[in-house]
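Before the break, one more example. Copy the sequence into your notebook; we will annotate it together after we see the structure.
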Amino acid sequence: MKTATITEAKNGLSALIDRVKAGESVVITDRGVPVAVLEPAPGRVDLEDRLAGLERRGLVRRGKGGPPLEEILRTPPPRVDGDVDIVAMLIEERRTGW
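Here is what the structure looks like once it is written out:
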């Protein structure tokens, strides 16, 4: 939760409102004593604003595209040659850690 003095709130109200629109709460203090809280109105937090705020603060980095689904679906699964017991191999792998 962000804390701002009354002077900081007066001089930077637009920035504080941007933070509130992004879903954050801001405590306004007067000589170190909390006197008010700026909070988003119920049901008014926009997901895009929230993500933009998190991105500005360096907490998330949005991707630039979707997953390569077609490539994943076109790639054939690995094949096992010969008479191999897959379940036994899995149990052995779990037992040994390899």
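The first strand starts at residue 2 and ends at 5. The chain has a mean pLDDT of 87. Try to locate both features in your own notes.
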